[in-house]
Design a protein that fits this description.
The protein is 22% helix and 26% strand. By secondary structure, it is an alpha+beta fold. It has 2 domains: 6-152, D-amino Acid Aminotransferase, Chain A, domain 1; 163-324, D-amino Acid Aminotransferase, subunit A, domain 2 (D-amino Acid Aminotransferase, Chain A, domain 2, Alpha-Beta Barrel), CATH 3.20.10.10. Strands 1, 2, 3, 4, 5, 6, 7, 8 and 17 form a 9-stranded antiparallel beta sheet that branches. Helix 2 crosses helix 3 (95-108). The longest helix is centred in the middle third of the chain and has 16 residues, at 185-200. It is globular, with a radius of gyration of 20 Å. Bound molecules: pyridoxal-5'-phosphate and 2-OXO-4-methylpentanoic acid.
């Protein structure tokens, strides 16, 4: 076994032993195959290469204090992938097949599930690509679905610590009626320049306003945004953001903790009224936001003067982690325990 420094893992790729694959050919899904190579061999005219017929997912599995492995909300990821498939004309993978492949990929790579004490997790990356050739713009007739896993640490340096974001109006991630609600590679390609500009300016991530009016809060890099004020959890309603499974979970947990929950358009000015704010996602978990700067107006919205996460962010983070690690009862049926 390689010496993996579990405690200091970054959010990156470390090779594991196996990945699992399934092909769509002649109008149906084939058998689940196990592969030990991390390469794929595809046709040079494959639609994923030319026309962006590509979807992915991201979820995590955790080694828990009781020694078991728990997978968080994989059914929701299966369903979101199906929604993405409908969005870009790819065949839908049935939920049972998705779940069976996730479980298989974890079991085959069990030695890469980080120990509980490390705070790291096994990141599971399902990928669906059009492999059939087309030169005209149309959907492929053949597809490859695969899942690889890799152990990861925190997405942002420091993990549960505040970092700063920047609004840059010169970039859009997704159009109001475009592909923002789907997890397709094109959205991430569209974000690369803004992300680089944000990093170069010393921010942890770029922050998007709605593409049409540049008035409302949209996506927070590769995560959803939430704000807290007056005992209320407030998160954007938008047709161009990814429906985050973490955000959905936090809305439930906020409500369990007695907070009101609002999902509605959030005008940029309202940022000045929030007591706390955070970015949320599988990779980001909750990444509390210290400050958001608006590059154009010069306005700064400060949520954490002392650099510490706020009390509600802390409570939500702890609740979420405790459910993921089997420390708190899974009252919402979110967790699959691998025996
Ligand atoms: N928004 C974007 C653009 C993302 O890439 C992700 C990550 O998957 C999220 C939000 C968070 O979604 P989830 O909580 O389902 O991981
Ligand atoms: C996730 O949170 O799973 C993401 O997909 C974020 C990023 C790595 C794309």
């Amino acid at each position: 076994m390689e010496n993996i420094d579990w405690k200091n893992l970054a959010f990156g790729y470390i090779p594991t032993d196996y990945n699992v694959r399934c092909y769509w050919r002649n109008g149906q899904w084939g058998e689940i195959e196990v592969s030990s190579t991390d390469s794929i061999n595809i046709h040079m005219a494959a639609t994923c290469l030319h026309y962006g017929q590509e979807a992915f997912e991201g979820l995590k599995a955790f080694r828990c204090p009781d020694g078991k492995i728990r997978i968080f909300r994989m059914k929701d990821n299966a369903e979101r992938l199906q929604s993405t498939c409908r969005g870009i004309m790819m065949p839908e993978l049935p939920t049972e097949r998705f779940e069976a492949m996730v479980e298989k990929a974890i079991r085959l790579n069990e030695r890469f599930v980080p120990p509980y004490e490390s705070g790291a997790a096994l990141y599971i990356r399902p990928l669906l690509i059009g492999t059939g050739p087309q030169v005209g713009v149309k959907p492929a007739e053949e597809y490859l679905f695969l899942i690889f896993v890799t152990p990861v640490g925190p997405y942002f340096k420091g993990g549960f610590a505040t970092t700063n974001y920047v609004i840059m109006r010169q970039y859009d991630r997704a159009a109001p009626l475009g592909t923002g609600t789907y997890k397709v590679g094109g959205n991430y390609a569209a974000s690369l320049r803004a992300n680089k500009a944000a990093h170069d300016a010393g921010y942890s991530c770029e922050f998007y306003l709605d593409a049409k009016e540049k008035k409302y809060i949209d996506e927070c890099g590769a995560a959803n945004f939430f704000g807290i004020k007056d005992n209320t959890y407030i998160t954007p309603k938008s047709t161009s953001i990814l429906p985050s499974i973490t955000n959905k979970s936090l809305q439930q947990l906020a409500s369990d903790l007695g907070l009101k929950v609002e999902c509605r358009p959030i005008p940029e000015e309202e940022l000045s009224t929030f007591e706390e704010a955070g970015a949320c996602g599988t990779a980001a978990v909750i990444s509390p936001i210290g400050r958001i700067d608006d590059m154009e107006s010069g306005q700064s919205y400060v949520f954490a003067k002392d650099g510490k996460p706020g009390p509600i962010c802390e409570r939500l983070y702890k609740r979420l982690r405790d459910i993921q690690y089997g420390i708190e009862p899974d009252t919402h049926g979110w967790v699959t325990v691998l025996d």
